[in-house]
Amino acid sequence: MKTFGSRGNWWALFPLLLASGLMVGTNVSARAGDSATMPVTAAKGWRFRVRHENLPAVDNIAVSHDGSLYVTRELAGGEGEVVHLAERSATVLLRGLNRPDGLFLQGRRWLYVTEEVTEGRVIEYDLKTGKQREVVRLNNPEGIVALANGELLVVEDRVNGRIVRVLRNGVVEVVTSGLNRPEGLAVMRDGTLVFAETATGRVISWREGEMTVLVEDLDEPDQVRIAPDGALWITEDAQPGRLLRFKNGSVQTVLSGLMAPQGIAFTARGEILVAEQSRGRILAVMPPPPEP
Predict the structure, then answer these.
(1) Among 129, 144, 247, 257, which residue has the fewest nearby CB atoms (within 10 Å)?
(2) Three state DSSP letters for 33-67
(3) What is the biggest distance separating any 2 CA atoms in the chain, rounded to whole angstroms?
(4) d(CA 281, CA 7)
(5) Would you call 278 helix, strand, or coil by DSSP?
(6) What percentage of the chain exceeds 70 in pLDDT?
(7) Apex CA 148: angle with CA 143 and CA 149, to 5°?
């Protein structure tokens, strides 16, 4: 994960701007003041718009049942926060975090966040009461998934990285180890784990001890998510980076020219959200219309 901090939290005092423009398979240059002018390009038929902007260092995303968003942000010096984004407002839920990264929303009540540092915390936040608790400490925890039985799967982003299972009593069990900087993590419906191995440029599946390379030769793959239709979505944490869709054995570049894309999420309207960290915004991507 790369981060680009901002100075303080001044942005949260102002309403977030929503962009209404829709881009259809065209090039859209970065706004004035961005760190790069690489245009964002959509694959033929795909469309995208800016859903939220003025979000320096935005990282991972989770979508609430009401369509609002939760995001992690790492500010200058590594201090970070979790923010709730409604249509035109931003509310900081958690402050003083140490390099917050991974984010997962379980149902309507439980939000989980990881701190990507040595002895980093895995935090459970109760959206109903506003209370938080430390579940466990791990070494550079990043990608996280909460299972229906209350257990957690967490990736440790290290050269000799691991995927671990955190039981409800806090006991940590190693699922697999010896990974080379694993980051994003997702679970398929059949229980197969999928993770991005950033240092090797691969996305790998793991099931019952067997690993299979799904995609390779990527430029720093970061986050992975399984869409409702079973497609696997991947971001490349590069400048420029891409948003990729993998299904039926083939990879499609949906967006290119992104600046350090990070988290991915899906809305009830069928949009794919992607956090473009270096431009401080979240894009909403729409698939091509169905053929008649």
Answers:
(1) 129
(2) CCCCCCCEEECCCCEEEEEECCCCCEEEEEECCCC
(3) 54
(4) 17
(5) helix
(6) 88
(7) 105
Q: Which residue has the higher pLDDT, 11 or 120?
A: 120
Other Cβ atoms closer than 10 A to 217: 8
Among candidate residues 156, 150, 123, 153, the one with its CA nearest the CA of residue 138: 156
Place of tokens 């981060």: 3
Structure tokens at 144: 């996280």
Total Cβ atoms within 10 A of residue 235: 30
For residue 195, the one-letter residue type is F
Q: The whole model's pTM is what?
A: 0.88
Residue ranges per domain, the chain?
10-24+34-280
Task: Look at domain 10-24+34-280 and name its CATH class.
Answer: mainly beta
Tokens standing for residue 97: 């975090």
Give, as one character, the DSSP assignment of residue 203: E
Of the candidates 47, 64, 53, 144, which has an alpha carbon nearest to the alpha carbon of residue 108? 64
